[in-house]
Design a protein that fits this description.
single chain; three-stranded antiparallel beta sheet; 3 strands
Length: 69
């Protein structure tokens, strides 16, 4: 999904809508590293680093997709 692709908020929402999850593995001053997790057990599939303001706002203070927005 991510190789050579800049992840957008639409991408992340499609990931969530498919039943899969994500977890913040690092939060920096201006970016986050997000681990994308399988929907059938939470195994990491991929991860990405982003400074996209839309994604940062969507994630806000949450550490995972399991927390309410």
């Amino acid at each position: 999904m991510l190789k050579g692709h800049r992840v957008t908020l639409d991408d992340l929402r499609r990931w969530e809508d498919s039943g899969a999850g994500w977890r913040v593995v690092h939060r920096g001053a201006e970016s986050v590293t997000v681990s994308l997790l399988r929907c059938d057990g939470g195994e990491e599939v991929d991860r990405f680093v982003t400074d996209d303001p839309a994604i940062l706002a969507h994630i806000a203070g949450r550490t995972s997709s399991e927390q309410d927005a």
